[in-house]
Amino acid sequence: MTLDRGESAVFPVVRGTGSDPAHFLGVKSGRDGSTGMLGVKAGTTNLGNHLRGLESHTSTTLLIDDVTSALIAVVQANYLNGLRTAAADVLAVGRLARRDASTLGVIGTGAQAVFEIEAIRTVRPIGRVLAAPRSAQSGEDFAKRVRDRTGVVIEIASLEDTVRAADILVTTTPSKAPLFEHDWVKPGAHISAMGADNVGKMELPISLVASAQLYVDYPEQAAVIGEAQHVVNAGLMTIEVLRGRSLGALLNGRIEGRRDEASITVFDSSGIAVQDIAAAQAAMQIVTAAEGSRHERVS
Amino acid sequence: MTLDRGESAVFPVVRGTGSDPAHFLGVKSGRDGSTGMLGVKAGTTNLGNHLRGLESHTSTTLLIDDVTSALIAVVQANYLNGLRTAAADVLAVGRLARRDASTLGVIGTGAQAVFEIEAIRTVRPIGRVLAAPRSAQSGEDFAKRVRDRTGVVIEIASLEDTVRAADILVTTTPSKAPLFEHDWVKPGAHISAMGADNVGKMELPISLVASAQLYVDYPEQAAVIGEAQHVVNAGLMTIEVLRGRSLGALLNGRIEGRRDEASITVFDSSGIAVQDIAAAQAAMQIVTAAEGSRHERVS
């Protein structure tokens, strides 16, 4: 919202790899007007790490004072990263999904999908959750993780059944090709495409993105590494049009939300530095407050 | 050197500002084959900080394991940054300056200049150091800092006298225009331009850079934010030619050094992530070793 008002800034994203080109390093940086902080987040993806008992995604955020340029905090943000991504999505779902949306479909069974289920239930009357796993094993693991964390019992279903049933569909995969057919999508559905965050990544059919009411977290970034890159590259949408489709503009009331009950809405999240800064700052304040009260107890 | 051999990588530099556009944030990242680490350095420049009693430049480096992508260390690199910059310069001066170079000229009287004087004395028989300060006050302060740290008594001189006398000239300023005239430079001089590290920064006359034997720390970066940007932008040198002028290629013996005793050589340093990673790793090893011996003593 401060980004849409010009009070925040997102700097270009850097993508690199380890000497194994399948190990990714992403660096997101920016300035957040709401907290008065600059921030730099280094995020890593190393999908072989489950074999080592290590996390496949790590995030570390540096918070830097906007006035003095001093380093204020180094925040281990593995958990925060999932939280901030789901938090942005909840803002989108809250504005874009139909009020009566009750069936949630999930494609992707990684850590982010659990955060999404937990978060979306807070803004819509979700009565049913379907998930389409890649294998029976990953489906069972995922169902257990969701139940342990949220109490929700999910239904494991095929990709097609999941998409066809979903009032709200959330994709959280590292896919590089559309995950499903455009015509499987229900009229009136809302889709949150959370996975695309690099050149070449893609979760949705291009015709769906081009024809839906599209919203993106940050147009400049979405056009390069988000789901929107494909409609821009195909010449189906200009960057100028995309600049008028930001979540911030929606939240600030500058652009309209869902047009009618039959519209299909899409939120394209590539994840932006101002989210990382705000999340790290919030975590720091909680820790600082907790330490303060502990010091009071011991003194 | 590992960069020149393709065993290391430098990712694109990010430049942003605080809400005050004179406060800079720079993010350098890459992968260093010699240490097996990826690294991200966040550097800040806030020249108003001397009024607050705070450092005008800060650096924080994250070290990330190339194999596991795990965060290995967070290194406060304010001091290291000066050291690594001078260390790279010493490699250049050691290969490029005449063996008999004995007069060192310094333009710029900030923290980096002190590191440069200290370092260059280790590779050439420096008998005389001239410095051209912006004001009498800054000259006195600088002379005291150099004396306190290195024992060297410097001579304060005009810009022209400093340049004309120098066998080795080092510039460490945030200038955006040439600091001196091309024809003041002695035949056979070596010049290390350490200041340019952003679009628009410039310390040397463009004719000097175009006609000298030019070497750069990293061609892709030098062409955008280094001194070399101006010869490339003016069409006086192609990026292809620049790719054959790296310090790594010189150190690896792939390109020649000083052609003859009358040649003017220029080293254009914009500072690269692999230097930050190697410096942070070295610091971490020293600290780890010191902690190990302390633990031995107390156990």
Pick out its properties:
homodimer; 299 residues; alpha/beta; six-stranded antiparallel sheet; 13 strands; 22% strand; globular
Write the layout of secondary structure elements.
Two copies of one chain form a homodimer.
Chain A: E1 9-10, E2 14-17, E3 24-32, E4 37-45, E5 57-65, E6 71-76, H1 78-96, E7 103-107, H2 111-120, E8 128-132, H3 136-150, E9 155-156, H4 159-165, E10 168-171, E11 190-193, H5 206-211, E12 213-216, H6 219-225, H7 228-233, H8 239-243, H9 247-251, E13 265-268, H10 273-298
Helix pairs in contact in A: 1-2, 1-10
Structure description:
Two copies of one chain form a homodimer. With 299 residues, chain A is α/β, with parallel strands linked by helices. Chain A is 35% helix and 22% strand. In chain A, strand 2 and strand 3 form a beta hairpin. Chain A is globular and about 55 Å long. Chain A starts with 8 loop residues before the first strand and ends with a helix. Chain A contains ten helices and 13 strands. Chain A has a seven-stranded parallel sheet with strand order 9-8-7-10-11-13-12, sandwiched between helices. In chain A, strands 1, 2, 3, 4, 5 and 6 form a six-stranded antiparallel sheet that branches. Chains A and B meet through strand 2, strand 3, strand 4, strand 5 and strand 6 of A and strand 2, strand 3, strand 4, strand 5 and strand 6 of B.
Strand order of the largest sheet of chain A: 9-8-7-10-11-13-12
Helix fraction of chain A by DSSP (H/I, runs of at least 4): 25-40%
- Count the helices of chain A. How many? 10
**What fraction of residues of chain A sit in β-strands?**
15-25%
Helix-strand pattern of chain A, N to C?
EEEEEEHEHEHEHEEHEHHHHEH
Backbone structural class of chain A: alpha/beta
Point out poorly predicted stretches of chain A.
none
